[in-house]
Write a structure and sequence with these properties.
Layout lengths: L1 H13 L1 H25 L24 H12 L1 H10 L8 H7 L11 H12 L7 E4 L5 E2 L3 E8 L4 E7 L3 H22 L8 H16 L1 H14 L6 E2 L12 E5 L4 E2 L3 H6 L4 H19 L1 E3 L7 E3 L5 E3 L5 E3 L2 H15 L3 H11 L8 H14 L10 H14 L6 H20 L5 H17 L1 H34 L10 H49 L1
Parallel strand pairs: 5-10
Antiparallel strand pairs: 1-3, 2-3, 3-4, 4-6, 7-9, 8-11, 9-10
Length: about 550
């Protein structure tokens, strides 16, 4: 704790930027945190923030707790808007009302001047903008907190879009990451919720995601990987990256156009069947998840265009998710356990997936899983609503203070968004039914005789390696024991709590003893000092 405080103090002492940013964060938290507390205490009718108190936007309806949280992220800008957007994917951490509010976070800011944008491009690419583009539209297509997007035409005549990182955004994000890391460490040690939530781990995950979005070279690589994965597939089109004009701060890619995927009227006017587009869109995502293990994690309607002949064009590759073969196999095992009404199998799958670590209330968890299964008992796969299932599962995860790994949380959010997108196109669409053949294929690939033979061979190799290494490792451990270097750490929450109470009581007792001893000693010494003072006074008068 002391090291965290000293680290914050050092930053405040040596950096004006940190001081100013901490001041902004503190002011915002006080303003909206006070609103949050008022709502929580049921006093909102006495403090009407909706009338503009403390700078809140004026409106008729009172603000909710979740709205105050969203306003905090909005007021703090770039980094915190992105944090809120990432947290909106964590249905395992936050209740639905907070997820709903954070989904409203709009990453839109007033555009940066064209002079600064062009200057950034020239600094990144090391050449004059007129040497690169035949035409560069000064009006942005989009203006977000991290980057700004412009249409342009290359000297070769190709239509492109240019995404440019805003000047100073990397420095601001770096400061905010340091501050959020410090605050997460403090929260982990000072807040009761720190026992249930790994605040530092959440911030690390957020930091990794944000830094990937800040790196346009990584986004270009993601686009190339998607193109390779769908090579030869005429249902999908991925725009090409112009690598000669792409750096960490600038990305130039082919411009594609088409009908926004959720515009049913426009699709029908173009002679395209929304039901076919819905089926095609879901198959594209499921192929990414179950076959490629690499998926587009932001299926927002603005990122999908229906081009000529029903081809789906995909853009914006900053947020992606990964699944390895073991995770895909565990997901299939989870589906099988659910279909077989097997609570213990579901718990085993959760453990394999990393959702369950330490189970403090195993019996209650098993009982709730059994109750959840019964809700879907007897339903055919065509009758199952994936979004409802995901909502029920994430609610259970929250109640038991479990936590999904980042990749699974992102997958859960992505599948939920995709189901909403395709149902908008075709209300009769059954996402679970579309998922079944992909899950079956993963099962066959994982448990076919050839796959089992490969896994058996790998296990034999591992056992041989362990057999060769074990004697040396055992000698090493025994040596540590003999030298007294081996430390065993146990984690007993109730014991820690009771020891903390005892420690506090002992501290108070010791303080009381010391205080009493001091008073008694002072009382005993007082006559001696009084007599000494009187003698000195007499000697002076004599």
């Amino acid at each position: 704790m002391a090291s965290i405080i000293s680290q914050i103090g050092y930053r405040l002492a040596v950096s004006r930027q940190y001081r100013n940013r901490y001041r902004e964060i503190t002011s915002t938290l006080l303003r909206h945190g006070f609103g949050f507390l008022v709502v929580q205490l049921g006093l909102a009718r006495f403090v009407p923030f909706q009338y503009g108190i403390l700078g809140h936007p004026r409106r008729v309806e009172p603000y909710t707790q979740a709205e105050h949280v969203r306003l905090i992220f909005e007021d703090l800008g770039t980094t915190f808007i992105k944090l809120g957007q990432i947290l909106s994917t964590r249905t395992d951490l936050l209740p639905p009302e907070y997820i709903h509010e954070l989904e409203k976070l709009l990453d839109r800011v007033p555009p940066t001047s064209i002079e600064l944008i062009q200057s950034s491009i020239e600094q990144e690419l090391g050449r004059n903008i007129d040497e690169i583009f035949l035409y560069f539209d000064p009006e942005p297509l989009a203006s977000a907190s991290i980057g700004q997007v412009h249409a342009a035409v290359l000297k070769t005549g190709e239509d492109v879009v240019v995404k440019v990182k805003r000047p100073g955004v990397s420095e601001q994000v770096s400061i905010d990451i340091d501050i959020t890391t410090d605050l997460a460490r403090l929260a982990a040690r000072r807040l009761p919720a720190g026992r249930n939530y790994d605040f530092e781990g959440i911030v690390r995950e957020f930091t990794q995601t944000l830094l990937r979005e800040l790196d346009y070279v990584q986004e270009g690589r993601n686009a190339d990987r998607f193109r390779d994965n769908f090579a030869g597939d005429e249902r999908v089109y991925i725009p090409h990256i112009h690598w000669d004009y792409t750096t960490e701060g600038v990305i130039v890619m082919e411009r594609i156009s088409g009908i926004r995927i959720t515009d049913k009227d426009a699709l029908q006017s173009a002679g395209l069947d929304p039901k076919i587009i819905a089926k095609q869109s879901s198959e594209i995502l499921l192929e990414q998840v179950f076959e490629h293990g690499f998926f587009h994690a932001d299926p927002h309607p603005a990122n999908f265009f229906v081009m000529a002949d029903g081809i789906i064009g995909i853009v914006d590759f900053g947020m992606v998710g990964y699944l390895d073969q073991e995770t895909k196999a565990s997901l299939v095992e989870l589906f099988i356990a659910v279909s077989e009404q097997d609570p213990d199998g579901i718990i085993d799958s959760y453990i394999d997936l990393g959702v369950i670590g330490r189970i403090e209330r195993f019996g209650m968890l098993r009982s709730e899983i059994s109750a959840l299964i019964m809700q879907y008992y007897g339903l055919s796969i065509e009758e199952v609503n994936i979004r409802s299932v995901l909502d029920d599962v994430t609610s259970l995860v929250r109640r038991h203070n479990l936590r999904m790994p980042a990749n699974l949380a992102l997958l859960t959010k992505t599948v939920g968004m995709e189901e909403g997108l395709v149902i908008n196109l075709d209300p009769s669409f059954k996402f679970a039914e579309a998922m079944a053949p992909f899950a079956k294929k993963v099962w066959e690939e994982t448990y076919s005789p050839q796959a089992l033979a490969r896994r058996t061979l790998r296990s034999i190799v591992d056992l041989i390696y362990i057999g060769v290494r074990a004697p040396r490792q055992i000698r090493h451990i025994l040596g540590q024991v003999s030298r007294g270097e081996l430390t065993i750490i146990t984690n007993q929450p109730r014991l820690d709590e009771e020891l903390s109470i005892i420690n506090s009581a002992v501290n108070r007792l010791i303080f009381g003893i010391i205080t009493a001893a001091t008073l008694i000693t002072a009382g005993l010494m007082l006559p001696f000092f009084s007599d000494l003072i009187r003698r000195r006074r007499r000697s002076k008068t004599d």
